[in-house]
Amino acid sequence: MSDDRMFERSAQAWLELGPSTAPKRVVDAALRTIATTPQQRDLQASWRFPRLTIQMRFAVAAAVGLMVLGAGLLVLRSPQNQIGQTPTPSPSASPITMERLQGAWASVGTRIDPILGNAPDKSGLQTIAVDAASLRLNGWKGEIASSASVIGAAGQLELLMDAPQESLNREHWDCTTGDSGTYYASLSPDDQTLTLTSASDECASRDEILTGDWTRWSCPDPARYAYCSHVSELAPGRYTAANFKPFEGGTRGQFAYTVPAGWADFHFPPTWPGPDRRADLTLATVANPDSPLINVDSTIRASTMSAVIGAPPLACPDPVTASGGPAASVADWLGSRPFLAVSQRRPITIGGLSGVQIDVSVVAGFVDPCTLGSAPGAPIEYSTQIEIFGGSETGDSVTMDTATDDHARFIVLDTGDWQGYPGTLLISLTAQGQSALDVVIAQAMPVVQTFEFIPGPSASPTAVSSPIAVNATDLQGTWNSVGTRPIPDALDQLTVFTLGANYLDIHQSDGDVRSSWVLIEDTINRVWVHGPLTTVPVAPRWDCFGIGEYDVSLSTDGATLTFTPIDEDCAQREAILAGDWTRDVAAEPSLK
Amino acid sequence: MDPAVVERARGGDREAFTTLVGQVSDSLYAVAFRILRETASAEDALQNALISTWQQLPHLRDVERFEAWSQRILVHACYAEFSRRRQFAANVRVIDLNRAGASDGSRVLADRDELDRAFRKIPVDQRAVFVMHHYVGLPLVEIAETLGIPAGTARSRLHNATRALRTVMAAGALRTLEEGRPA
Fold it and tell me: DSSP 3-state assignment of A185?
């Protein structure tokens, strides 16, 4: 049996373990909630299966990112992207009305959240939406709505809990449906900052979350949280991206751009730090936020995927190494693919970087022979989607579909050598059909022309001289620690380890501590180690076990190796591996 | 799945929706557990997915796709639960059955434990694709359509997940070699 088949069988056998029946109490609880939950019939757009095009690639990551933020981000940061946009609460002389309060608001700072009761810090960033008659908190398991009205010129906000008891219980709120609360609301003169001060509230959880400052969140439609979770409307003006770093694989530099009215970015409420997406940035229009008009990616590379014309069965060919750069070479690569039609190739300079602009469409009839599109037993079909760019740090790819007449304009810019390769940055504009692409180009190119790439200082000034992208063979050998490392139950001492084809042995006088290891592809210079798998007599001293993830860098002469821990279950191994190592040229690697 | 029942549920018929829940909840829960590897999380994900499915059902255009659509909602509920829960999981200590001297029986358990631990290290979006492929049995294109991602992305997620688990299995092979080596 082949390794592949054996792996599949093992994986399937392992996955078969576990429950296959939903607990009745869980289903019953859901049905009880559903019994008092209305269906959403007021949305402007109906859900449908999206077309599988390049436009959809950010939606899932963005949705995940939202929840990550809500759970884990515990600190306040300056507003996302917009330069100088700082909440400046000050009372407004104008009377408070529900009309002025309407919109989406993001908490300034974190608030105690009952559902985080088991966390070390029970705080989280919060969002609320206010309409003509209600205030809705975006809870973990749905909205928690209160009827809302403003009484008196002093801005007394009266709330009445509308959320069903089941919802409150699910959110761990110690409150009751019908609980009333009174707050004093004040707005800054520009209506951008709301301050709520509790006068009284029977629902303490609501009080803890609402009391404080809120900054207006330019969510185009607050009622559509799925929509607003990843889109923030941008006021016309110039912005500097907070997270995206265009140079050296998302580690260095700044990116600035200018947008007119009607644009949005794929980010989060203004007080939220946003996802740590340093290697890409996406801009869309408010009118069509789920179809990004401009994608910028600093780590994506031309894909090795192949496409062929033919009838099943088709063989999956070996991948052909694609050009990683410079930009002209990437354009040559695209131009040489038989399944791509290219046009409009010309040199271009954007934001201080030079490169190549090229328009690309996929030729009808080609399929990806490596992806089966049929269920087991059904006639074989192949995917009409062909990956053009991939392998980015963020997992994003640019996939074009021959069945939907995908067209794209790619702008590949040279960003300078990094880790031994010519660095490139990709700007992609995409649409279905040439006429649609023409519309996108007309909208997007004026914005692209405002891009500015600012290199800034290197993010890793202490890195070993000129690190290069490593492959597994490069790393194999015997390595001596630079300096001493703590060995369990022993004095600090110089340490030696050997990297074989798939194992890593840390040598000790009475035995080796062995872990398995693998170089993670698609993520530059990152390895996983697993174990230790060692036996007596060393084992008793190693009171740890698990998986470790490290960045590795290798000097250009291959003589110095640096391990930088990313995540490690085994603190003892981390204490030894982290740092610099020099190759022991006298020792033969024992490739067992 | 009877399209007529889906149609009725879409129109607001709770009884019809209860019928649908009876038909899909087991499979949804099984998928949720395999993605999240934790009972409480899987239960919460299922509960949230069922409620979201009900709320959003009027916007499902193609009633024939109800099952795939509900799977997508479930996977997103899993993403949410994963993010919510993972900060609480940092201090959970998994009992190490992989020590020298473990019996054959406990070694089997240890192998499963290793797979489980490795799986927990994989990003949840990769887990979802892995489970949809190896447990649900969907081809990549159908996974991509169900999850709303390009096929290339589905493929790379499956590839990455597979590689991670292979690391663990390679470790198991190494251990076997170690055991066969004279002391």
Answer: strand
